[in-house]
Amino acid sequence: MASASPLVALVDDDESVRESLPDLLREFGYSARAFSSAREFLESTVVDTTRCLIADIAMPEMTGPELYRELRARGRRIPVIFITGRRDETLRARLLAESAVECLYKPFSDIELQAALRAAVGRAR
What we know:
This protein is globular. The protein has helices at about 15-25, 40, 65-75, 90-95, 110-125; strands at about 5-10, 30-35, 50-55, 80-85, 100-105. It contains five helices and five strands, in the order βαβαβαβαβα. The termini are close together. It has a single domain (about 5-125), classed as Rossmann fold.
């Protein structure tokens, strides 16, 4: 692993998630940046250094899946973990078929998140 911690970007319109999840990511040994919208992330300076993206599925303006497709259209192959409060196995299966690393249902466990992060960062190498 490089000397710097892998950067995990979090995009979620829920302020409580943006406040709590980065602390957990840092406890896991990752660098973390939180964004309140897909547009904010796309306009940031960290897109090119992001090793994993955690994106909420349902957000105003641009959803997590739309963000993922936009990144791919721009030639960015950032591994993504989707998170959602709505259990929808059909959507989950479709996202995984589109190469998402994982789709976790809120509330998810630390163990589930750590496993998904290990898989995502492994893909980013």
